[in-house]
Amino acid sequence: MGDYQPLRSDDAHTISHAPVLNKPTVYYSKPMSPLRRLAFACSILLCFVTIVVFLWVVPCDWSKCPAKTQRQPIMSWDRSIEGLEIMGPLKVVRGAQGLNIVAMYRGPLLAYDGARDHFLPKSGGLISFIGASGLIAWYTRLPMLTHLDCFMLHIGDTSMQDCLVRGDNGYLALVDSLSGIPKWRAQKTIAKQSLVDVSFPVVTPDVDGDGYLDLAVTGRLEDRSHRIIAIISGQTGYVMGKPMEVEGCTDINNLTLDRDYTLYYTCKNSTSKLFSERQVALVNAVQMMTNRSVVPHGSVQQTTRHLGNEWSVNGYRLNLVNSGHSPADYQVSVTVTDHNNQSVWSPTMQQTYAMKPVVLHFQQAISGFLLKFWYWHAPHDQKKDKDGNIV
């Protein structure tokens, strides 16, 4: 075993006087340098830029990126009806549960066993299809129709549309687009005389004070050769007062209403066979018809007019002249001028025939002319004899 020895006095003194650390430890961070601060700010900004890029820059517009099913041609419905011919353009109207289609129709020219009983031979009328299914919503037998417009005039409930139709023998009526029931038929006799050759109407402001827009038409009394201008009530279809007789005009075309409430029309003289443009203020015309002063209420969209081979819309004029008697010597000259009578477009084309122009309006923001040209190739050309071009 080992032996124990007591501490010496100097060892005990050393231990008792050992130093003790009682001061707290202090920690502190060193401030970032300007370069580190810039790098930190750039990293945060980069995160936000990444989010913005992936949310708004990388994806395309939803309207230009249709779903896969939308990119494939889909036929919602296809319907065939025997003994029925759809005539003219289709009109899309509001229905009870969505959009419907309204169109003019014509029955078969000859009777046959497969024809439906309600589409009689040599008959006409209006028909409506349910937009979602193509089923027939309603049909209405009317005289053979030539014109249809479902946006010009609305009577009663403004949420639903009414269709204005014109047919043979001066027939004019306003039809409810939801039920197919005519709301009125225009007056056919004036002072025991039949009104014939009625034109498709032009909408005018309210001149009889019933709160609805009215209509202006041209026509002819059956036992007279001169043409007349008449104002028809948009609510009832009755002719206001006595129609204004236009002396010296055996034919009137292109009745239009300008922004200043002036009626323009082209008059054909029986002797010279030439067309001349005439005009009459709407208030003066109504005063001559009804013997009372009127103040038009409401506003209507300016219609277009043309004189002979000249058309006009919003200050622009189109002049079109076809010449020649056969495809080999056909020639067409077209001139479009602006508000300052400066030429905008003036081509001259050989072996070409131009169809009657159509004046276009797009939500009152864009307007112009639609032209269709027929062009004949030379005989040695191996292509088709004629091409149709639309400009």
TrEMBL record:
Domain of life: Eukaryota
Topology in the lipid bilayer: Single-pass membrane protein
Transmembrane segments: 38-58
Any one of the GO CC terms: membrane
Signal sequence coordinates: none
Subcellular compartments: Membrane
Classification via InterPro entries: Beta-prop_FAM234A_B, FAM234, Integrin_alpha_N
Primary location: membrane
Keywords for this protein: Membrane, Transmembrane, Transmembrane helix
FAM234A/B beta-propeller domain sequence ranges: 131-286
Cited Pfam families: Beta-prop_FAM234A_B
SUPFAM superfamilies xrefs: Integrin alpha N-terminal domain (SSF69318)
Protein name: FAM234A/B beta-propeller domain-containing protein
Native species: Graphocephala atropunctata
